[in-house]
């Protein structure tokens, strides 16, 4: 009986393979390539010294197919990976409430949100995160670390940290839904210039940005800080851009055979602007910066931006997973392509990575003595007729 079932299974598998091959040939896909793929699958599935995970094999094949495009921005994502990414872009997540970066010594905490699980547990800025439960964080990238720190709301884990004092400590953290602001605002002391930092773009960034503007009150100028902003939700960038641009294009999207336009509704706030950018300003951030530059609504200060000027879209597979694939490239309102090039600021002022970390996240943030790019932005706005008093620029 078992032998008959095995034979029947092989016959059915053969029929499926033949049907798949014929279908792919009909679609114009090379038979030899398809046959080779099926041959590879058979060899791996039968010859490996342990029984492989069949689902993992198919995921690997799908990932390899997308990787064959040679495009770093196209990728195959499982449903779980897609859901996690969507959750972060919505503006909230079940986590501990921190910003962190990964340097040559591993992950280090840059910022702890108020009333967050991290603050409650005593996690401090400058703490180096060594282990989450029994898993070492050494050698992991930021996405892998984020996946370990996040989880189901209400679950707990032990975070082993190294303090700046050199002492090590275990902290018990309980994950919670964290609402975080993608913007931070302040007045430049001694001036009537406002400052808004955008860490990344989410669906709620435009609303948070507008709230910041209202809280800052009547201004004679505004500095928008997009340094180290790798992008995010493009609709967030469109919403912020629409506040300042005249009616017309924010960005063009050029595909193989067509071009479309994302249009500003003409908010056109008459507020002098200076935008801070650097080599980590990318994607949605470059859309905003490029639109402001091309429409002469403000000037860019800092360093050449990253140059990520392509459009990705998600397509769901039959299995429920997703393919993120590049479908177009961005063009600025003047139809400049920035992909692989970036934007050149009107005022180019270099800074080191350590200087950026201190200027954006450190205790000396918003100080023109230690942030030459911020100092230049203040100077530029001052040149437009603003009365600036005081030498330092600090937070409220």
Describe the structure.
There is one protein chain. With 396 residues, the chain is of the alpha+beta class. The protein has 3 domains: 2-52; 92-179, Pdz3 Domain (Roll), CATH 2.30.42; 183-383, Alpha-Beta Complex (2-enoyl-CoA Hydratase, Chain A, domain 1). The chain is 34% helix and 26% strand. The protein contains 11 helices and 19 strands. The protein has helices at residues 2-26, 31-47, 54-67, 79-89, 117-121, 142-149, 205-216, 234-244, 284-294, 353-361, 372-383, and strands at 75-77, 92-95, 98-103, 106-112, 128-132, 135-136, 156-162, 168-174, 176-179, 183-187, 193-198, 221-225, 248-254, 259-264, 273-277, 298-302, 310-316, 322-331, 347-348. The strands form 5 sheets. Strands 10-11-12-15-16-19 form a 6-stranded mixed sheet, with helices on both faces. A hairpin with a 4-residue loop joins strand 13 (248-254) and strand 14. The protein is globular. Mean pLDDT is 86; it is low at 386-396.
Unreliable stretches (pLDDT < 50, length at least 5) are: 386-396
Q: Calculate Rg over CA atoms.
A: 25 Å
Outline, from the CA principal axes? Answer: globular
CATH first level of the largest domain: Alpha Beta
**Integer tally of domains:** 3
**Total DSSP E strands:** 19
Looking at the structure, the CATH topology of the largest domain is: 2-enoyl-CoA Hydratase, Chain A, domain 1
Present the secondary structure layout.
Blueprint: H1 2-26, H2 31-47, H3 54-67, E1 75-77, H4 79-89, E2 92-95, E3 98-103, E4 106-112, H5 117-121, E5 128-132, E6 135-136, H6 142-149, E7 156-162, E8 168-174, E9 176-179, E10 183-187, E11 193-198, H7 205-216, E12 221-225, H8 234-244, E13 248-254, E14 259-264, E15 273-277, H9 284-294, E16 298-302, E17 310-316, E18 322-331, E19 347-348, H10 353-361, H11 372-383
Parallel strand pairs: 11-12, 12-15, 15-16, 16-19
Antiparallel strand pairs: 1-18, 2-9, 3-4, 5-6, 5-7, 7-8, 10-11, 13-14, 13-18, 17-18
Helix pairs in contact: 1-2, 7-8, 8-9
